[in-house]
Amino acid sequence: MGEELLEDLDVVFAEKRYEVIKSILSQVWRKREVKWTFTDLLDHAFLHRGLGIPIFLSLLWAVFLFTFNFSEPFMVMIEMFFSWVGGFASGLENEVFASFIADGVCGGLGSVFVFVPPIFFLFLALAFLEDSGYLARAAFVMDRVMYRLGLHGRSFVPMIMGFGCNIPGIMAARTIENENDRLITILVNPLMSCSARLPVYVLISSVIFGAGYLAAASIYVMYILGIALAITMALTFRKTIFKGKPSPFILEFPAYKLPITRNVLTLTWERAKWFLIRAGTIIFSVMIIVWFLSSFPWEATGGGANIEASYIATFGHLIEPIVKPFGWNWMAAVALFFGFLAKEIVVGTFGALLGSGEEVELVRDSLVEAGIFTPLTGFAFMVFTLIYVPCVATIGIIARETNSAKWTIFSIVYLVALAFIVAGITIGIGRLLGIP
Amino acid sequence: MDFSRKIGKTAAVYAFILGFLYLTIGPLEVAGGIEKYNIPADFWTGLALLVVAANYLYAVKGLWRGEFKGISFLFTGFILSTVFGFIFILLMGADGLLYLLGEVEEFSPIADFRPEIWLFIASTPITAFLLKIKRYMY
Amino acid sequence: MITVALIGNPNVGKTALFNRLTGSRQHVANWPGVTVMKKTGRCKHKGEEMEVVDLPGVYSLTAASVDQLIARNFIVEEKPDVVVHIVDSTNLERNLYLTLLLLELEANVVLALNMWDLVKARGDQIDVDKLSKLLGIPVVPTVATTGEGVEKLKDEILRVSKEKPKRRLVVGYGEEFEKLIRKLEDVLRKDEKLAGRYPLRWLAIRILERDEDVLKRVGESPIKDEVSKVVKVFG
Fold it and tell me: Please, what is the average pLDDT of chain A?
């Protein structure tokens, strides 16, 4: 830092303190006239000791309601489009090329683009809240709670977004200025169970517990476990790698305003664009690889119909020993491996391996028949899915946002290790208790 | 007293009624809803409705006395009512779209007309109130 | 027994408050090594004994004057359970400066908004709740001359002494300086003695401000050279 800049810092700092005082006084002190501004009105309620947090949680729920329900028809439209293209492609002459387009490209691109609507709407809603000025208050209100958990107030929104998809969650961590706080938030975000893992939970829980209470309860447990692990790891990181407390929460309340459409749309597009480009390229290329491995050698597999003869099967048997201690077989290993690429693929992979197509009910039935999972091993599988490495796209985003190979690799290693440990403990406790 | 007591008292009564309505519907949604009256089972939204009720009820005392404090919660209660009302109206449209796309077999606008929507409509007179007190504000 | 330090600008009614709290149980001496008067006293509230120390009236906490050093060192070295900052509520802008410094020292502060009667008489409004929320510390309006608010002040003192400190306002100095501060903190952390005694952030900021007293202490520390690498403050 330049020598000149370090001169008279006591004066510079003193000025900064007076700035803060002015800011405080503008919100707290009023001369004789008793008029309030609209900002005062809203702040009195939004920052209220009792109702402040419930109001925030309600608004957050509204954001979720909007995002995931309103995007349904759009997701359907995108699915239909890709189905149509796929159907059209299967009629092509060259079999390999037809499969490439139908299963590879459409399957691959389709599974990425189908997520654009919810991600777009989620970002839209959050941009709206941000431009209105409310988000700054929300961060302040949540800060007190987050501080005790070793996190910064601004970590709350990224963590919550992680429940929808870890990618925008991690990107939302950009609002956190302090490097350490930001890194911790990013490292811990994958433990927030993203929506892509839900199909896996639904599938496995219905296989081992049937429909009904236990199945739903086990899924609920996954989410809670995710949160608990996120908090534990955040606190652990604070004590070990990132010593020190969360950084000062800097007071910056802009006046409330009705969000300007142009601002909101710009903010939204900036973030959604990332998902499209990054996730699009990674998932797409990987799906092509999956397609290739499960369809070749072409003649042996009959164009992808007979999986056992494909390269994937060879690979699966190779890695089977790693998961044997958990009681899983080579199919589960392959499913997990491809789950690395994108969690939803786990269901599809089982479907492909068991030859039952992709509909969840069908895959469930064939899984039950094949008897691959017992209640204990199935539950451990769900736990493993919760924790182990997030999808490739997320890793790509982590790489981009941390701008560091070291932290990206660290996140992969620690998550995989944590997954093995916790799943192992689960199996261990289960066997001790005599659970099948 | 920060603004006209007369306006305040009317607003207070209105806030009380709204608060009471939200306080009734909220727990019903949490508990599982009543199909006959179009009250769906929705645990989390039910809780959110309780928060809206709290906002309106908190506002009553301040409004009755003509204090700015009361307006705060009336305002935020109204914001929440609007947010949820809007969302469910949009979702009605989404369901309509799904029906058109052939994903669902039936589309019933009546069934989709949730309490949040008419509760929102019931809360719109608050805008008149807010406009009236604008001259007391900066 | 709880130690309570009283601090504030000159002429804000600190003496009046001190007398309210301690009554006739006072003791006058000198601060060691100087000719500055030190007043201590006892106060009993809800069965708890408090030892109240009246610190010199100061506007700031730099190393520039003896008074300020006395006040500062008492807080840093003796670590009183509670620091009551008494301010002239009709002149908040000037008075709150010291509050921010106290928060930077990570003291357990309770703010006494004294001369509250004057504020009311003028018709001004101070949102006590919001001020408390923004600063993260209890704020109690008081009129030391009549005793108004003093019971509540004592309640808050007791409460704060028992609870864990909550999240308090910290002044951020901008990205560039915050980076420097963090670097300094990382270096300072290595000297366990320093780190155990003083708040790291406070040390870092004082170093940047070239505070004589702090520089002297850091100069005696084994990590002095590492500090020099971050910021050229020695020599």
Answer: 79
**Mutation site, C96, C129, C184, interface A, largest A CB count within 10 A:** C96
Burial string for A241-262 (b: 16+ CB within 10 Å, else e) reads ebeeebbbbbbebeebeebeee
Contacts of A149 in chain C (CB under 8 A): none
Q: Do A47 and C135 touch (CB under 8 A)?
A: no
- Which among B48, B55, B137 has the least Cβ separation from residue A62? B48
Least confident of A140-149, A337-346, A377-386: A337-346
Host domain of residue B87: 5-136
Q: Nearest-CA residue of chain C relative to A144?
A: C167
The Cα C59–Cα C10 span in angstroms is 8
C174, C180, C189 ranked by CB distance to A1: nearest:
C180
Mapped onto helix, strand or coil, the DSSP state of residue A219 is helix
- CATH architecture of the domain C2-162 equals 3-Layer(aba) Sandwich (3.40)
> What is the sign of the dihedral through the CA atoms of A180, A181, A186 and A190?
positive
**What pTM was estimated for this model as a whole?**
0.66
Alpha helix positions (H), A240-370? 261-274, 280-295, 298-301, 311-323, 330-339, 345-354, 360-370
Contacts with A, C 13-52, CB within 8 Å = none
Residue C190: which pLDDT band, with cuts at 50, 70 and 90?
Answer: confident
Contact A390, A338 (CB under 8 A): no
The DSSP string of C140-173 is EE-BTTTTBTHHHHHHHHHHHHHSPP--------
Q: Kindly state the DSSP code that residue A260 receives in the 8-state scheme.
A: P
Number of H helices, E strands in chain C: 11, 8
Question: What domain count does chain B have?
Answer: 1
Report the candidate in A252, A279, A254, A264 with the shortest Cα–Cα distance to residue A111. A279
Chain A residues with CB-CB distance to B44 below 8 A: 61
pLDDT of A50 reads 86
- What residues of A are in contact with residue C124 (Cβ under 8 Å)? 29-32
pLDDT of residue C229: 83
Contacts for A417 with CB less than 8 Å, ≥ 6 apart:
none
Q: What is the pLDDT of residues C101-141, one digit of tens each?
A: 999 998 999 999 999 988 887 778 899 999 999 999 999 99
Any A CB within 8 A of C195 CB: no
The architecture of the domain spanning C175-230 is: Orthogonal Bundle (1.10)
Cβ proximity of A226 and A99 under 8 Å: no
Joined together, the tokens standing for residue C144 give 């030391």
What residues contact A269, with CB distance under 8 A and at least 6 apart?
A: none
Task: Give CA–CA dist A350/A346, Å, rounded.
Answer: 6
